[in-house]
Each structure stands twice: as C-alpha cells, then as structure tokens.
Design a protein that fits this description.
With 475 residues, this protein is mainly α. The protein has one domain. The protein is 74% helix and 0% strand. It is built from 24 helices and no strands.
Length: 475
C-alpha cells in the first residue's frame, strides 16, 4: 500500500512539474463550473479586491471552501497542489478502510454468504481465494493510481474534494459513528447540493447496523432461515434513528449555511450562486453529464418541469434499495452505500470523469458482486472507458476546430451515462441475486435438516409422510 501510494504521489508531482496542469485545467471532462480551477482563481481575485465573488455567474465554490483555499493562494502554487494530493491520499485510505470494514461484515455473515457468492461447483474457500486478490489495499490503490483521478488532481480540480467527504461519510457510518457520518453527509450536501441527499438513508442504516451488539452479530453468523412473513420490513428503532440522523444532517447543513453567511458579512449572494444556481442548472457549460444538453434544448416554459423531473427521480431509489438490500445485515447496507455513491456520480448536475473512478473504486469493495456480474461488467465498463476517452476528441472537433456541433459531445456523454447506468444496475442486480441465493440455501438447508430430524425421531412415520407427499405430487 505504501509503495503504491509513493508511486501515485510521485506520478502526480512529475506531471505537475512537467507543466501538465496548464494543458488540463480547461478540459471539460476534468473540470466543471463548480470545481474548475480557473473559476476558483477568478473568485479569489474578486475576494482579495473587496468584490463579492458571487456577484456574477463565475464562481460557484461554497464560501467556506473558498476562504480555506484563500490561505493557499497567498503562498506558492505548489502548496495548493500538495493539498489536492493529500486529499487524494486521504480518500484512498478511507476507501481502504471501508474495504476493511466490509471484509469484517462479510466474515460476520458467515459461510452462508460465502457459499452464495461462490460459483456452482466451487468451494467457498476457493472462491474466497479469488476475492482475496482484490484486497483493501488494492481498492485504495485503484483510486490513487487511477488515471482519471490523477488527471483530475493534476488539472487542479476540486472534484476530488467531493470524493473525500463522500468517503468520509460512509466510512464514519461503517465505524458506527453516526454523528461523524451526519457531519460527512452535511458536508456532502454543502459541496454537492441536493444530489448527496441519497447518502442519508444508507449511511443511517449502516451506522445503526454497526452500532448493534455482538449478540446480533452472532445471530447473523448462524445464517438461520426465517420465513418472509416473520421478518419485519421496518424496525421502529431504526425509523427513529433514521429520523434523528436526517434531522441532525439537515441541522448541521443549516449551520454550514449560517457560517457561510457570517463569513460573507451577511451577504446571501453565495446561496444563489452555490446552491440555487447549481440545482437550477443555470450554467450550461458542457461536461460529461446529461443536464447541460437537455436544458440547452428544452423550451423555457418547460424548464422548471424538467428541473423537477431530473432531480426528483433520484428520491425514488433509496427506499426500494433499502427494502431489497439495505435492510439485510450485515452486508446489505454496504452494498446500498456503494449504490448510492454510484447514483450520485451519475446523476449530479455537473459530473466529471474522475467521478467514475470513485464509482468503480466503491464497486471493488464488494468484489463478489463484480464476480457475479462479470458476464456483462467488463463489456459495460469498456463502454464507459470508450466514451470518456473520446470526449476530448469530440470537444476538440466541436470547439477547437469548429468542424462539428454539440451533438458530437452529447453522443459521447450519452454513451458514458448509458453504459455507466447499466454497469451500476448490473452490479446491484448481482447483489440481489446473492441475497436471494443466500436465502434459498438457508431454506433448503433447513428443509433437509427437518427431514433428517423426522427420520431419526420416527423412521416409519417419516416414510409414510414421504410416500403421501410422493403420491400427491404424482396425482
């Protein structure tokens, strides 16, 4: 892990001193209106000259982040770059820690989950050997050495700061620290308005699960079968915890807004520029998402309707995912968190290429799901990589040489988002299949044990009962 981290850091500094940032900081696939380094410099210039950075439509960086980065603006640019490198390193360490927590949860799930994730005809020990290749260190290094993440860091984009707070919120929940996780989700809402609301339910469920007693962990390990009608869909204690978690998150977010207003001397222009403008998608700068093209084409009188549809549809995913995956401890909540992280990367108004690096790193935490969906996963992932690699070419043809139109860029973003959505959906389907298989294995195991107990207790009665069942089946 440390050798790989050293390689990743060295590579970033080598590209920085080769003056690569000057070539990448205006690339549309690596920067967005809210994470661009060029816009950040303009906002800092206005702030230093006594002008509100939010008076125009240039700066969309939240005030507290802007004031924090102002400290690095007065020193060498190398210090600013070093801070971004440290953000990547910490994010990689958090992803590694998340993989460690998931491995513990998988051990608590016992052999039932291992048998469900093992291919037919393969022993659970052999399957575990395959999954050990993707170790927690591998997950962290995959993010740190990912070319998309490196390019985003070298382009001086603030996108990786969002990745840091996302990972912090989930890892804090995995550690059973509900308060710290609420802080992480509030920070996520602060740097990624509205879309980060998808983290509230899975983080609350994960924090609640991890805070359970050791006795409950032993109950998970037994893997005993229980009929569906005996299982509670919603636990009253969890509902209360979730309401408290959501209230704490929104309260902390309100405190961040209050601190931002105080930092800006009572002026509220930041709220319009950093939150309302982002949610309303007023800046239609091309990026790897779908919002910019759709809202360029939509009629103005239907603008609010499409804004509502594009944002509101993500609210319908959390509860079904919790009922189908998240409420099945101890592994289901981790899968729900990974799915929520992937949906944020796909459905935020201003995504970048590095978001897909984070999504793939989160998917690698549950290695057995990738193994389960490997028939389509590699093909779909290739589609995502193809689209991302073609975006710079299409931008150059359209905006550089003026030899095309916006459809050149839109076609590639459509490929990226369609293949990215299919990749995430196949990954979630794999989790559903494993859960069903685990349930079926427990059911048939319990059925066989009941038959053996009947035979041992009264062989004659068991024989008569089996004959009656056979005659009924033949009729």
């Amino acid at each position: 892990m440390w050798l790989g981290s050293a390689v990743g850091i060295t590579l970033r500094y080598a590209l920085y001193f080769a003056r690569v940032p000057e070539m990448l900081e205006e690339h549309l696939e690596l920067n967005s209106p809210i994470t661009s380094h060029v816009r950040l410099k303009e906002g800092l210039f206005f702030l230093e000259n006594g002008i509100s950075p939010y008076a125009g439509d240039t700066c969309h960086t939240p005030p507290l982040v802007l004031l924090l980065l102002q400290l690095f603006h007065h020193v060498s640019p190398l210090v600013h770059f070093t801070a971004l490198v440290l953000v990547d390193v910490v994010t990689a360490l958090l992803l590694r820690k998340l993989a460690v927590f998931y491995r513990i949860a998988r051990q608590e799930a016992g052999v039932r989950w291992a048998e469900a994730s093992a291919p037919m005809g393969m022993a659970a020990k052999e399957a575990a050997g395959i999954e050990d290749v993707i170790s927690p260190a591998f997950v962290g290094l995959f993010y740190l050495l990912n070319p998309l993440t490196i390019a985003s860091c070298v382009a001086l984009s603030l996108q990786n700061l969002q990745h840091l707070v996302f990972a912090f919120a989930i890892v804090a929940a995995a550690a059973g620290k509900g308060g710290l996780s609420a802080i992480g989700v509030a920070l996520s809402l602060y740097v990624c308005p509205f879309t980060a609301v998808l983290l509230i339910l899975p983080c609350a469920a994960l924090a609640h699960q991890q805070s359970l007693s050791a006795r409950k962990a032993r109950d998970w390990e037994t893997g005993a079968y229980s009929p569906s009608w005996q299982q509670r869909i919603m636990n009253c204690g969890f509902i209360g915890y979730c309401v408290f978690f959501a209230s704490l998150t929104l309260g902390l977010f309100a405190c961040l807004l209050g601190a931002s207003a105080a930092a800006m001397g009572g002026e509220l222009q930041f709220f319009e520029a950093c939150f309302v403008s982002v949610i309303a998608v007023r800046d239609l700068t091309p990026n790897t998402g779908l919002f910019w093209y759709m809202f360029t084409e939509v009629f103005q009188r239907y603008y609010l309707l499409f804004i509502f549809a594009f944002h509101a549809h993500i609210l319908f995913y959390s509860v079904p995912l919790h009922l189908r995956l998240g409420c099945y401890a101890p592994t289901g909540t981790f899968i729900h968190c990974g799915a929520a992280l992937g949906m944020i990367c796909l459905f935020k108004p201003y995504p970048t290429a590095s978001d897909y690096g984070l999504m793939l790193s989160a998917m690698l935490v549950q290695a057995e799901l990738i193994k389960e969906s490997q028939q389509y996963f590699a093909f779909l992932l290739s589609g995502v990589m193809f689209g991302l690699s073609m975006v710079p070419t299409m931008v150059a043809v359209w905006l550089g040489r003026n030899a095309g139109n916006a459809n050149y860029m839109y076609n590639m973003t459509l490929i990226v988002n369609v293949f990215g959505s299919l990749t995430l959906s196949q990954w979630v389907k794999a989790g559903l299949r494993l859960r069903k298989r685990q349930h079926s294995l427990a059911y048939f195991r319990q059925l066989v044990l009941d038959i053996v107990d009947e035979v041992v207790a009264d062989p004659k009665a068991a024989k008569v009962k089996a004959s009656a069942h056979l005659d009924t089946a033949l009729q």
